[in-house]
Write a structure and sequence with these properties.
The complex is a heterotrimer of chains A (288), B (261) and C (348). Chain A has helices at 3-8, 19-48, 53-61, 63-96, 102-114, 117-128, 135-140, 149-160, 162-175, 178-185, 190-219, 222-228, 238-247, 251-282. By secondary structure, chain A is mostly helical. In chain B, helix 3 (38-71) runs parallel beside helix 8 (124-149), helix 8 runs antiparallel to helix 11 and helix 10 (165-194) runs antiparallel to helix 13 (226-257). Chain B has 261 residues and is mainly alpha-helical. Chain B is globular and about 65 Å long. Chain B contains 13 helices and no strands. With 348 residues, chain C is α+β, with helices and mostly antiparallel strands. Chain C is 24% helix and 37% strand. Chain C is built from eight helices and 20 strands. Chain C has a six-stranded mixed beta sheet with strand order 6-7-8-3-9-10, with helices on both faces. In chain C, strands 13-12-11-14-20 form a five-stranded antiparallel beta sheet. The chains are: A mainly alpha (288), B mainly alpha (261), C alpha+beta (348). Chains in contact: A-B, A-C. Chains A and B meet through helix 2, helix 4, helix 5, helix 6 and helix 8 of A and helix 1, helix 3, helix 4, helix 5 and helix 6 of B.
Chain lengths: 288, 261, 348
């Protein structure tokens, strides 16, 4: 319908609702998002800077804050790199091959998304805790997993496992296997095919998955909280420190750390939006 | 291949199997005793009940938000579209402290609400608010693509057959969104049931009143009552499996009934 | 390079894509695998390329077992139906790919690779596109780049899967000719898959007609058209009139009435009579063994196509092609006599 037709007979347009209804719906949607999403975000920054900028940076400069930031970065580095490698392999296997138990594998990959983070932490306590399956052995050999970096890393890997694989599977399925077959028939080895043909085609999707994986790895709270033991300056990640400081009524310090995490979330979202646009462009089929 | 399966087993299967094995340490009576104890039952009731209520709100509000984002043009539409993902991206602990601060008695929203006699923070209402917050993206993001891809022709066909706009929306458009709406609802519900970080700050955590099931697991763990923690976890896990199963069935059903164009 | 395929069988679940197929391809031949979709022609091509593996049977190149080698080791150039160009590489890099992934020991140096790619792009007459990306090319250009890329590895065999399937009619015609010319220049043993009979008959030296995982006939284009070996081939290639007949007492009968044609020793019983549209001679009423009335006439090109309702119980309507100079009007009663025909068993 042309613009002109719209302006002549707006009441008869079959594609939309009367103006008043449109206004109410938009107003409701905007109000809902403002109250439930924007306001909490604003509160984080407002509270962080409520005593001024210098108080904010003093709070971030505290040794335990620095230790938490360092630990969070370390955990993210470990879990993102491992999930990157295995996420790509899992997605490759699922998208390009047919095998028995494929559906089972897919549900397995999705599982961490649907399990409470607390339960994700709990399973590792049951495995490695003092009363756990491997607990006595670990104690005898003086290996610390729980309440130490390995436990936190394991729990984080568990909850962030799906991101990379989930981002890649639909992309790889859509691209099919023809380009890989072409590469093989031209004499490329499996690795050459992967690095020269498959990887360049999925790089944006991969980045997307890694981005989300990283955001979750840095922000995970429930699972990490269960396995960390909350040892100050040692096993406190940034989200855990937010909790501790908040419970001690150190609001500025708590929100200062929280503001860093919030910025991480915002940057992730921005990058995600840009990437999504890129992915959409690339998905315009090139051979039609 | 083999490597992937091994990795998946180490990181996902073995830990979960461990959880179920642990429950076999308990006799059936013991298990039943834990699960039906007053405090556990109340925690489960609170978690599932409030999650259901929050998912209902998300269903309605999510539909309104999707409709506005997809069908109307308004200033800041793209920004609001991006904002929908914030509850997903924001670390739960940050969301938790922010919501608490916002709805505390002296908070920006807590103060006016207190004057009306409504106390949000440290009550079940607070839990409900936090659950609504984290559930927002699910309904919106599952329904949005379906509404976008909906063929305008079916609306035109309905109109040409004499249906008014009201009829077209409620008899033609909404029914074709039902599978996506239900899927979004189930996902929001499942997420809210298991949610921990954004809820515990605002909840007040009073046993039997405002104590959610995941928190009870954490409390039992800190008391070294592993068996109790495991039993509650198993109940919650079964519930989430049921939900995933329902979602998968729902999507298969939707696909057979309305194959993608 | 000769190719020999023996007893090849491949099943997908219960579906037999290839059912005991035997085929010999001579050196330097340009062979077409022709058949409807699901006839197994693409599966056969992919097994020869090493992209699929048979359940049983043998494939050999120059007498040497090919199945023991992977796709990358067979030196087979494969042109994919949708070209499968690497979308993130330029045309130049696409063509160079096969040269760049060779083991270091035998890999050409950069200058030699460049020279070779240029030579190939010249061969397909698309030198000027070397910096473009596949998405910036037309269908016909992509097709030729895909061919250049396959030729880069100096394949001993060239395999093409529906090479013209995704192109529009005009480009298709041009490329057919071009492929034939190219083949006569490089003379590498080539097999292409098609479901388009015209394409197969026009381009190939020999045509393999396939149906339901089996080879129905192998022969020159003239052979398969003029002497179809089976009812399927007769029906699939060229347009045919099919009449249900009965062979009795040495005569071919339609609705019990004997037609004035020889049974050629065909065993008594139900049969199908196949006649090409242009092999039906039209004469004045009473002059042939079939009678009918003209219902409709359309003229195009050198022929006129007439719809004729046959007299008899069957109320059969057939379409025949007659020369333009023969006067035909709707309502005319005419007599028909098959000039050339074939009889096949009645089942299916």
């Amino acid at each position: 319908m042309s613009e002109q037709a719209l302006s002549h007979q707006p009441r008869d347009d079959v594609h939309t609702e009367p103006g008043a209804i449109r206004f109410v719906i938009v107003a409701l949607a905007v109000l809902f998002l403002l109250v439930f999403v924007v306001l909490p975000l604003v509160v984080v920054f407002a509270s962080a800077f409520s005593r001024g900028i210098s108080a904010y940076f003093t709070a971030l400069g505290q040794p335990e804050a620095l230790a938490a930031i360092k630990l969070t970065l370390l955990i993210a580095a470990i879990s993102v790199s491992l999930n990157l490698v295995f996420g790509v392999i899992a997605a490759w296997a699922i998208a390009k091959f047919d095998f028995a138990g494929k559906t089972f594998l897919i549900s397995l990959i999705d599982l961490p998304f649907s399990v409470s983070p607390v339960i994700s932490g709990l399973v590792f306590v049951l495995l490695f805790g003092a009363q756990g399956f491997f607990g006595p052995w670990l104690q005898a050999h003086d290996v610390r997993i729980l309440f130490a970096v390995p436990g936190i890393a394991l729990a984080t890997i568990f909850v962030t496992f799906p991101f990379v694989a989930r981002a890649l599977i639909p992309l790889m399925q859509e691209q099919g296997t023809q380009e890989e077959e072409a590469a093989i028939s031209l004499g490329a080895s499996g690795l050459q095919t992967f690095f020269r043909v498959t990887l360049p085609n999925i790089k944006w999707g991969l980045l997307y998955g890694v981005l989300l994986c990283n955001a979750r790895a840095m922000g995970e709270f429930g699972a990490v909280s269960v396995v960390s033991g909350h040892i100050r300056g040692e096993t406190n990640t940034m989200p855990l420190l937010v909790e501790i400081l908040y419970n001690e009524y150190q609001f500025v310090a708590s929100f200062a750390i929280a503001s860093l995490l919030a910025m991480l979330a915002l940057i992730t979202l921005l990058a995600k939006t840009i990437l999504e646009r890129r992915l959409d462009e690339r998905q315009v089929p090139s051979d039609h | 291949m083999g490597l992937t399966l091994t990795w998946l087993s180490v990181i996902i299967l073995i830990p979960l199997a461990g959880l179920f094995l642990k429950t076999f340490d308990l006799s059936l009576e013991q298990f039943w005793g834990i699960v039906t104890s007053r405090r556990t039952l109340n925690a489960l009731k609170i978690s599932f009940g409030l999650s259901f209520a929050a998912a209902c709100v998300n269903l309605v509000m999510g539909m309104i938000v999707v409709w506005a984002l997809v069908r109307y043009k308004f200033p800041g539409r793209r920004l609001f579209d991006a904002i929908v993902d914030i509850p997903f991206a924001l670390p739960t602990a940050v969301a938790g402290v922010a919501l608490t601060q916002l709805f505390a008695q002296k908070g920006w929203l807590g103060a006016p609400l207190a004057e009306l006699g409504i106390k949000v923070a440290f009550t079940p209402i607070g839990i409900f608010i936090a659950m609504v917050f984290i559930g927002i993206p699910f309904v919106v993001r599952t329904v949005q693509p379906v509404l976008q891809d909906l063929d305008v022709e079916i609306e035109e066909a309905a109109a040409s057959l004499g249906a008014g706009r009201w009829h077209t929306v409620f008899r033609v458009i909404l029914p074709s969104l039902v599978p996506a709406l239900l899927t979004g609802f189930a996902l929001a519900f499942a997420r809210a049931v298991g949610e921990y970080g954004s809820v515990i700050f605002i909840a007040g955590n009073l046993p039997n009143v405002s104590e959610i099931a995941p928190l009870l697991i954490v409390i039992r763990l800190s008391e070294f009552r592993y068996a109790d923690a495991t039993a509650i976890a198993v109940v919650m896990l079964m519930a989430s499996f049921l939900i995933i199963f329902a979602v998968n069935r729902l999507q298969r059903w939707a696909q057979t009934r309305m194959p993608a164009q | 390079m000769t190719i020999e395929v023996r007893n090849l069988t491949k099943k997908f679940g219960d579906f037999a894509a290839l059912d005991n197929v035997d085929l010999r391809v001579a050196d330097g031949e340009l062979l077409a695998l022709l058949g409807p979709s699901g006839s197994g022609k693409t599966t056969l091509l992919r097994i020869i390329a090493g992209l699929d593996w048979p359940d049983s049977g043998e494939v050999s190149f120059d007498g040497e077992n090919a199945l023991s080698r992977g796709a990358g080791e067979r030196h087979v150039g494969f042109v994919f139906q949708h070209y499968a160009l690497f979308r993130h590489m330029t045309v130049f890099e696409n063509v160079a790919f096969g040269l760049r992934v060779q083991p270091r020991a035998v890999r050409k140096d950069e200058a030699a690779i460049r020279a070779r790619v240029k030579e190939l792009l010249d061969l397909v007459q698309l030198d000027w596109l070397s910096d473009r990306y596949p998405s910036q090319l037309s269908g016909g250009q992509r097709q030729r780049i895909a061919l250049a890329r396959a030729l880069a590895i100096e394949p001993r065999i060239l395999l093409l899967d529906e090479p013209f399937g995704a192109l529009d009619a005009k480009v298709r015609k041009e490329l057919r000719q071009w492929l034939r010319t190219l083949h006569s220049e490089i003379h590498v043993t080539s097999i292409f898959v098609t479901h388009d009979q015209e394409e197969a008959l026009e381009v190939a030296n020999r045509v393999v007609v396939m149906d339901k995982g089996r080879i129905e006939q192998v022969g020159t284009p003239g052979d398969v058209y003029d002497n179809p070996a089976t009812a399927f081939v007769h029906g699939f290639i060229g347009e045919s009139i099919v009449l249900p007949v009965e062979v009795r007492d040495g005569a071919v009968r339609l609705d019990g009435k004997a037609l004035n044609i020889a049974a050629n020793g065909y065993a008594p019983g139900a049969a199908k009579l196949f006649i090409r549209r242009h092999d039906m001679q039209i004469g004045p009423a009473g002059s042939g063994s079939l009678e009918g009335s003209v219902k409709h006439v359309r003229s195009f090109g050198p022929i006129q196509r007439a719809e004729i309702a046959l007299r008899g119980e069957g109320k059969t309507v057939i379409e025949i092609d007659a020369p333009r100079d023969r006067e035909l009007q709707p309502g005319d009663t005419v007599s028909l006599q098959p000039r050339r025909y074939r009889l096949f068993a009645a089942q299916d």
